[in-house]
């Protein structure tokens, strides 16, 4: 069967959107199918995100807008999958698109229908905490901004049809069957929250002030039901004492799910911190079993929550909850760490609910014929974390297992990366390129401005005197025509605009209507189709920022609209055509580091036919994984590694250099040049490439603690692992093994969790018990962090008799060597000291970065490191494997400690991100970027310091001496450079000083 | 006593300059020489070892010689540097205007320079024929008058609070007297203005700046004003008015002051050269205070610390932001 | 002028405030205020800029020189900047500029800076109300005596 160059993505949350964008940018046609009416998923519901406290909406909405208008992405909303046939490379999928009862093409998203709808129903987006109409959109920033009618609520009064000037309401719309032919499928249906009603003891649904964490998230949100005020539902009072209860529905064999939901510890810490930020009087208390802050910089966040915000953490499972009828407060009984049972009153209880597989997981599995695991999540394995059981069908995000946003985004890109490998021969075959007329040369022409003022039905026209504004606009200097439209964004108006451009010989166009954030590109496209450069356009917002916010003062609103139009005209007189510079791309990749991460990435590049250079500083490939024999889940690491190395050595297009040192990396995205020396005799070599993957890995910490090195019985966990797999006989006479966790992690020197050590310890404990169940094993830990499905092995270890003893941060165990005995003493405040005799002491050491090497490479690539000397990605949440510097990516232990499956995901993710560049012959720079006037620049270098993208360099110029030079390929046009330039040598195209001055001088 | 120290320094300046030129360690010495009128000094540029006797050092040496170091000069230059000259050089190196290797900083301790504007106020419109500084007195001879003024009262205010009487970085240090520990600068001199109402403040500054004749001497004397084309001289667009109208003057001086934020080395050259006697340094002192208090930054004392506008912290103070309630 | 007649004058006087909003957070926050139909005074005129980092002090000085009664600058909250660190660069710049302008006698009430996120429609409206209140408290801008 022929391969098809298109992809179906199921689920348009952040994962599905990321996968679609990556694939769309890499030359594949994407069908993005969403079961609800808008994209964004759970992330759009969040208030802030940990560990940076970024505003979720601020960071996600640009991405959603981009997804919504990407020319290679076709959004299919309100649709379900019916049937899947075919095989990898060529599938046929039947789907059912449910009727919206509103025409998507015609709906402008103005919202009058919802405003006028007489029915008050419950808003799902706000978790049932706010009202919404039968006619509705999920949330104000929804993409696509198309309303829909919920027939279950609709009383058929016909009001919406009457008020919709766009004529978009279609009560008789019917469900529609569709069939699409694609080459690969990515499943990203996300998760469903655990529903705590089923556990009566929590009182959810019965007590008003017991709510779920996602409901609390909406309460925290500025766009939530109380506009960001933290109030309780029973009486609208500020809840001064809030209790958070962890592991609701997670790690609960009887009443919920046995696995750990991975994200609740962190989101709870975040919710507690944000609540405290909202109202200082709030005192949050968190009841927990283990704090699982295993991700990058998570522990630091918990420390801040505890010490800066005073969040109280109590390690205890509570025994009962009851409501005090008069106050609706909640009485909570729990056991303290000293074993005392106490009762405490709280004003509100937040249940940190876990992540369940999607409710329709079984249906999905059936339709796609894929296997689910024992918990009904999609089955994958450690070495293939994004591949389902059926070839050509990939999975990402929470459907693969509970996970947070960055891991979802990483997997989304990883799945896209796998699709790239599968379909590389047929990329760029199904995307369409629009034929555009040549641009009209407007140089030297006086401005001839056309102004289009929008009524937006009654949205603007009902409050602003649109005819008066139009008449006023027509009299402004250089305006040759002013017209008004019912809906300027409608398809017929686009035709009118094009005609007017021709008729009046317009060389500037202004639209006064809604917000440029969603509509600017539409109008730019229109004028471009009429032959004008797309930057000869200005938009002014007289709806969202005028008519809608001054509904009771039409005169003032009209006056404001006139001012805004005048300011836009002033600016339009100063605008000029801009070009998007194009750059050739060298379709070759450099991968630095020959561990698992680097090898996976290099193979995936080479398989697509991209010439790939894989360089490794050591003599042999494999990196830190040479010391690992098995994954917790039982995967054979050495076998996997050998297989990988064999493939690397025989792969076409793959050039391997070992014993390599990088001398220099010059250039920028699409055009790098690297010089290395390699081999024993330091042979020089150099090559050109378009992208760089940093996969340099990290090292095992070599302990100084616990008398390591002083007694042969004190070893590192990896040394124990070697004994288990290589020389199990050495364990024959061993009766007791003690393991100590967090050695060289979560301390002052290394204030982070190494993420894999808990799993390593449990893995080795289980293996030893398998060899000899008689050996006593004791694991001394601070928190057991077997997140996700790893929890199963923790439970298994306990069942098999492995003893787990918790110790506190400042009460580390003591190791005593005396009279040939090895004793480990654990201090327990409640029961006193425990002394354990050991024949072996295994130290679970952490992962540490290679500081000097990382610093050198960071300098060469001009990318940043974090405080712990791991590489720092561009954005912790949404750009987890990108650097701010374009064309450079990071994966694996170089980024942060993590297990093998995460390294593989990241490796594949970097491949996808890099393919968005390598798949193109030329990349287009932004039009609105910085420009330097060399005659004014004095080369002080301030702009170089201010630029977050390394887009400016000081260079020697024959005529002007040392001056700043902008690399147009890297510039994003933010203007941080220009804002500080004393010489006014830097200007920002599209927002020049002269243009902004013109707007300032638009005051009357 | 003071006179003796100063004379000794002057002597060693001449000797050092001569030696450096003779040994070929520098191609050029930039230093101070006697000015054309009493209590004035000027810059001098010496390439000939036999001419180093032109060099002088006294309390009238108020220019900032760093101004005379040109960006693209490849010669090896020795420069006589009191504290603020040294600071200017350091900051200019940070701003990539100078090449450290080409410059020999000849550090000298400075006990402060005279505030000539204040002397002129004291003696009125009369012409000074001869002036001399003897220990703690300034002895002035005019056509038909003699006047003796206490030196200490006529030392520049900013020299009294100066932290860096010798350059923070130098290649050679002359004079063996270690400068006295400077007073701790608490910016008390700004308090009076700062406590006034907006209306009184703007009236005060408008009155002061109204005298400006837009000669740009301040800009020409300032070691930090090295823009190829000053914003005020730019066209297309003309950013701000170029006339001596009070609004134009006010804006020019406000922006010029802003442009030296985190860069001003408190040499006072702007005030010293102002023909109208406007104390422009009073405005830039406020900026010194702002960057010191907000960002704990002082310009020209380190080659490594990034200037405040070139860096940032997550938790920079933002008390001025509007809060909701 | 008596205090009473002065008050009457302020009653009628409608201050004009220029608002520089960053495209990604504050402009979106202002849009959200609109979508949510949150009403606020009609005194601001928005100039959209890519980032607060773009805002050269010239724009602020020019606005006052040209007779705008007040300024509002709003960007992304610390940590939210679409351009990684533009708002941090801007924050230092505005801190210095504002301190300097106040020292020279420009009323602090005219110089309003803040952060508004894309989810904070309500906050945007509050910020506008506060800004209008601030500017009204100091009356029309008569700092400069001519226009350019």
Can you offer a commentary on this structure?
The complex is a heterotrimer of chains A (1004), B (325) and C (148). Chain A has 1004 residues and is of the alpha/beta class. Helices cover 26% and strands 25% of the residues of chain A. In chain A, strands 5-2-1-13-24 form a five-stranded parallel sheet. Chain A has a five-stranded parallel sheet with strand order 15-22-16-17-18. Chain A has a five-stranded parallel sheet with strand order 32-31-30-36-47. In chain A, α1 (14-25) crosses α2 (56-69) and α17 (717-726) packs parallel to α18 (757-771). Chain A is globular and about 100 Å long. Chain A starts with 5 loop residues before the first strand and ends with a helix. Chain B contains ten helices and nine strands. In chain B, strands 1, 2, 3, 4, 5 and 9 form a six-stranded mixed sheet that branches. The N and C termini of chain B lie far apart (63 Å). The longest helix of chain C has 18 residues, at 86-103. Chain C has a single domain, classed as Rossmann fold. The model of chain C is unreliable at 1-7 (pLDDT under 50). In chain C, α2 links the parallel β1 (17-22) and β2. At the A-C interface, β4, α2, α13, α14 and α23 of A face α2, β2, α3, α4 and α5 of C.
Helix share, percent of chain A: 25-40%
- Report the biggest beta sheet of chain C as strand number plus sense, adding barrel if it closes: 4 strands, parallel
What is the average of the pLDDT values of chain A? 94
The geometry of chain C reads as: globular
SSE map:
The complex is a heterotrimer of chains A (1004), B (325) and C (148).
Chain A: E1 6-10, H1 14-25, E2 29-33, E3 48-49, E4 54-55, H2 56-69, E5 73-76, E6 79-87, E7 90-97, H3 112-116, E8 121-122, E9 131-132, E10 135-136, E11 148-149, H4 159-163, E12 176-182, E13 184-187, E14 192-193, E15 210-212, H5 213-220, E16 241-248, H6 264-278, E17 283-288, H7 298-307, E18 312-315, E19 318-323, E20 330-335, E21 341-346, E22 348-353, E23 355-356, H8 361-368, E24 393-395, H9 405-423, E25 449-454, H10 466-474, E26 479-485, H11 491-504, E27 508-513, H12 516-529, E28 537-541, H13 543-547, H14 554-572, E29 582-584, E30 588-592, H15 596-607, E31 611-615, H16 637-650, E32 654-657, E33 661-668, E34 671-678, E35 683-689, E36 691-694, E37 699-700, E38 714-716, H17 717-726, E39 736-743, H18 757-771, E40 776-781, H19 791-799, E41 803-806, E42 814-818, E43 821-828, E44 832-837, E45 840-845, E46 847-848, H20 851-861, E47 888-890, H21 900-918, E48 922-924, E49 930-932, H22 942-946, E50 952-957, E51 961-966, H23 976-980, E52 986-988, H24 993-1000
Helix pairs in contact in A: 1-2, 1-9, 1-21, 5-6, 6-7, 9-21, 10-14, 11-12, 14-24, 15-16, 15-21, 17-18, 18-19
Chain B: H1 2-22, E1 28-34, E2 41-46, E3 55-56, E4 77-81, H2 83-94, E5 103-107, H3 116-123, E6 128-134, E7 137-142, E8 146-150, H4 157-160, E9 172-173, H5 191-194, H6 198-209, H7 217-221, H8 246-259, H9 269-273, H10 281-295
Parallel strand pairs in B: 1-4, 4-5, 5-9
Antiparallel strand pairs in B: 1-2, 1-3, 6-7, 7-8
Chain C: H1 3-12, E1 17-22, H2 26-35, E2 44-49, H3 57-65, E3 70-75, H4 86-103, E4 111-115, H5 121-138
Parallel strand pairs in C: 1-2, 1-3, 3-4
Helix pairs in contact in C: 2-5
